[in-house]
Design a protein that fits this description.
1 helix, disordered N terminus, about 160 residues, mainly beta
Length: about 160
């Protein structure tokens, strides 16, 4: 009986340590603003990540960039990310009339997603390490992957 009890307790500990627990989404929230280059011109990039309506499994991203000279908004997008264990799925919509499906993964402080279709898509990597935010976006072109946005935002800023 004693061996069975030890085996049972060991089994419970192993099962509970499998990694199926919910990832705390609060570490992925904040607002970041940074100088950036958009369409080969100086711009101001801004992104806000918040917990979605299903607080334990959804994140919402609002993203935009504006002309750094006159403040005119050049682009706006919104992502909805459903977190299921270490898997990510969702949708993206933007002011360029695009709607993409998203699929990817979440690990530690990094969300990585693929979006779009085989010949019209890309991938994004969002790193939330240490309260800072770093975003990199690539598009798939006939010649291969092309990095079109790489922004190191730094510390989260207050909502403006």
């Amino acid at each position: 009986m004693k061996k069975f009890l030890h085996f049972f307790l060991w089994s419970v500990l192993c099962i509970s340590a499998r990694g199926d627990e919910k990832i705390p989404l609060g570490k992925f929230t904040g607002t970041w603003k940074s100088d950036c280059i958009a369409f080969e011109k100086p711009a101001i990039c801004r992104t806000t990540w918040s917990v979605g309506l299903a607080k334990s499994s959804m994140l919402v991203q609002e993203y935009s960039f504006s002309d750094s000279n006159n403040g005119t908004e050049l682009f706006r997008g919104r992502g909805l990310y459903k977190i299921d264990g270490n898997s990510v799925s969702g949708h993206w919509e933007d002011s360029a009339n695009n709607v993409y499906s998203l699929s990817g993964s979440i690990e530690n402080h990094v969300i990585s997603v693929n979006w779009g279709e085989i010949n019209n898509g890309g991938r994004s990597r969002y790193d939330f390490s240490g309260g800072k935010f770093h975003a990199v976006d690539w598009a798939l072109r006939p010649s291969g992957w092309y990095e079109f946005m790489n922004v190191e935002y730094g510390d989260s800023v207050a909502e403006q």
